[in-house]
Write a structure and sequence with these properties.
161 residues; alpha+beta; three-stranded antiparallel beta sheet; transmembrane
């Protein structure tokens, strides 16, 4: 009878040890949950930054295409200085070419780039022009201070027959 009592006591004691979670287990699970949530927030921020960078690259391509289209329409890579100057203003600010050159309130919808500059180098002998657009997004300025290049660049070449 004594043996049974001792055995029952051991079983009861084992059940008491295993019932419930200890404080350490709760803290470890909270740390794991916090790390998982923090990594999800960081991933979301990176995706948002990549989306913004892709939008800027797309806008740079459209701005370069607009100047290249003017060259094709005029059948010359040597555009008047006023046209190039207006295009450079459009790259640097949120002004569309159509609203900058006419009194029309409806522009082409193209806006500029953050800290954007546009340059055009013309080679009249070969009838080619190189259009270069550089910009620096405000979010990339931090990387530039750390020694990484924070500027982006889009280069296209126009060759007329």
């Amino acid at each position: 009878m004594r043996v049974r009592r001792r055995e029952a006591y051991r079983i009861h004691r084992a059940r008491c040890r295993q019932s419930g979670m200890t404080l350490i287990e709760v803290l470890v699970s909270m740390i794991l949950l916090t790390v998982a949530l923090l990594s999800m927030v960081i991933a979301q921020a990176r995706v948002s930054q990549m989306s913004s960078d892709a939008e800027d690259r797309n806008r740079a391509a459209m701005l370069a295409n607009e100047l290249a289209t003017m060259m094709w329409q005029n059948r010359t890579v040597s555009l008047p200085a006023s046209v190039v100057s207006t295009w450079q203003t459009m790259v640097a600010t949120n002004v569309s070419y159509r609203s900058a050159t006419t009194s029309s309130a409806v522009g082409s919808g193209l806006g500029g780039l953050p800290n954007g500059t546009g340059t055009v180098s013309v080679n009249a002998a070969t009838n080619t022009a190189t259009i270069t657009i550089t910009w620096q997004a405000p979010s990339r300025g931090i990387n530039a201070a750390a020694g990484m290049s924070g500027t982006s660049q889009y280069v296209t070449q126009v060759v007329l027959p």
